[in-house]
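hiii, so i know i said id send this last week but things got crazy w the move. better late than never?? heres the sequnce for the chain we talked about at the cafe, plus the structure i predicted for it. fair warning i was half asleep when i ran it
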Amino acid sequence: MRPAERGDAPVPLVPDLRTGSDLRAAGPTVLRMVVGAQLRRFREAAGISTEDAGYEIRGSHSKISRMELGRVGFKERDVADLLTLYGVTDPGVREPLLDLADHANTPGWWQAYGDVVPGWFEPYLGLEQGAEVVRVFEVQDVPDLLQTPEYARALITARHPEASKEEIERRVELRMARRRVFERPEPLKLWAVLDEAVLHRAVGGPATLRAQIEHLIEAAERPNVSVQVLPFAAGGHAGESGPVTLLRFAEPELPDVVYLEQLTGALYPDRAADIARYRDVLNRLGVQAEPPSRTREILRDLLDA
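okay and structure toks below
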């Protein structure tokens, strides 16, 4: 399953802003991105600077930038004032956008886990829940969305030795809850490339690793999940810089998002050239890795060894 590249076809200036459950189901993070993208396009079409737009809503140019990137929630008055400034007076355009802006302020289900979710990770949870496709390369562990509870518990315990049993279970519960993306009417498409080392690192012990490999085999049988192993024999490869995740959304006005997790934070490269480079890395890894059919054979061989 190789996701097609997002084309360069222009998006209509006045898009079909769906107000039904299909777009709202994407979650508040994606809704903020959609609203922000439309505000940016209306502003650019009107030839208005971020400084002038900020002045209109009693804010700064940086506030406008954060709004357009979907990094903050929206006040109805701010959105209405900006639309007026940009010359967007058609109720058929204004009202759907204002409705989306209102729903973008609804808390996501994952915010109930705020006690165990660092601030830098919360945006990713929203992106993951709203994505149409997630492409990931992992060099140490099985990707979060493909982990068994036992495997996840062993990882979390090793990485949070100071955490109480209750906190560890909360973290495991959250990780398992994230898998609801596979239960949507249009389930998430996941394409994962795993370094072979992942399959030999006995996280939680041999029995836990074995159960995890069995789960990978089962998951890889789904039509919306592709798993590839990058073998040691491949030698040098395109992913030498480490793990990378790329998220793609159904909304054509939204760009791909690259997520690079670090020990105490995360990076989201947003330059188009940088995103294209990471996309190319994932494409090349997909070529260098064993195809999905051969990967399933490798996984079964590990169980028989």
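btw Residues 120-304 form a domain with the Endonuclease; Chain A fold (CATH 3.30.870). thought thatd interest u
miss u guys!!
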